[in-house]
Amino acid sequence: MADNTNISSINTPLAVVLIGCGRVAEKHLKAISKLKGLELKAVVDVNPESSKRLLSSVKGFSNVKTYSDYKTAIDEIRPAVVSVTVPSGLHYQIARYAMEHGANLLLEKPMTMSVSEAREMFELSKKTGLKIAMGHIYRYLPIVGLVREDIAEGKYGKVTHGTIYVRWGHGEDYYSSAAWRGTWKSDGGALMNQTIHAIDLLVWLMGSEPEEAQAMIAKRLRNIEAEDLGMAVLRLENGALAQIEGTTATIPSKHTAEFSVFCENGQLSMGLDSGKPHLNILSVKPNGKTKKMNGYYIRKQFKEGGLFSYKCALNPHLGIYKDLYDSILENKDPIADAYSGFSSVDTLLGIYKSAKEERPVALPLTDDFDSTDMTGFFG
Ligand SMILES: NC(=O)c1ccc[n+]([C@@H]2O[C@H](COP(=O)([O-])OP(=O)(O)OC[C@H]3O[C@@H](n4cnc5c(N)ncnc54)[C@H](O)[C@@H]3O)[C@@H](O)[C@H]2O)c1
User: Fold this and answer.
1) In this predicted model, what pLDDT tens digit does every residue of 303-317 receive, in sequence order?
2) How confident is the model at residue 275, as a pLDDT?
3) Which residues line ligand 1 (CB under 6 A)?
4) pTM
5) ω into 364 cis (within 30 of 0)
6) What CATH number has the domain bearing residue 62?
7) Which of 1, 322, 324, 362 has the most CB within a 10 Å radius?
8) Within-domain flag for 349
9) Same domain for 208 and 285?
10) Which residue range is the domain that position 126 belongs to?
């Protein structure tokens, strides 16, 4: 097995190969184009037209090589970074091959579709020292990191509970745009695709690990194999409860998502409503009155992160690539690290298992569970 040797000549830009030239890939290219420390060497897609379309959609990449086979691209280029942006059911095989050939990863969510494979990726990262930065975009939004630090340091007292909703409507056109969408094998449903990174964020902010999941899932509107609506409650190790709603069975032009964390001495909500961010952070003063903290966090974020952190609000992948680059150079874990990839897959599959077996499920899962174990759930 190769070690982290590809990055020894660190004063030249790190070579990047991106695999999977579909919808999300453009956000990756836009981010790479803004970072001097990264150089896109090749893109890979089984469909050559998709590679061409992607390269022509972002300025500055006209000389980038194209491949249709990811193994050939990795073998020839030996990149320091591989970006995995293929359908979710293919993440594991490509991510594993890339790490076995010495590459660090920007791995899209979900890390894998099975608990054992996610654990293997996490262990491989620990063993080799190669970094995995997950596509958990919400961790990279401005203010989120500052809020997390303050919750962790006890500024708001005991965390009682948290909630998220992700109402990310998608119509039949979205699901019929690619055969893998909405299938148990390659995608999962609204929870696995649209909600996993929000679950990751909520648990991260609440500062404790999930120890139990209870869930129900349903198929209300969309003609897919997996769920278009899921609701779950998690119990965390610190006793706090987290409530989750994730759905694509809402109006496609009205995407809304919000997370809230409730504490003894404060409550924090952030969200997006049709692309517009909203924020409401309240702290309870010793006299019992509440104080709005929005301005404090906005000023602090600007002082510490400058404009760059606000650019990440428009394209959080910019923050992920910058963080991955720094993590490689400084040999530290990325903000959305390999553990977050494993843990969120474990929680999500625990939610599916609970829905399937109609009972609470202990986390982390002790036996393997795979998204294909849900096959036939809706008949
Ligand atoms: N973090 C985020 O905000 C975010 C947003 C959207 C999608 N995603 C994730 O990104 C991944 C891709 O999603 P998408 O919407 O871009 O999908 P997509 O279907 O638009 O694109 C996937 C691309 O991969 C290509 N592909 C398939 N098999 C391949 C192979 N063996 N080798 C090379 N290329 C191959 C397809 O031809 C297609 O062009 C999914 O895992 C999804 O969950 C993350």
Assistant:
1) 999 999 989 989 999
2) 85
3) 19-25, 44-47, 50, 70, 85-88, 90, 108-109, 135, 137, 178, 193
4) 0.96
5) yes
6) 3.40.50.720
7) 324
8) yes
9) yes
10) 4-136
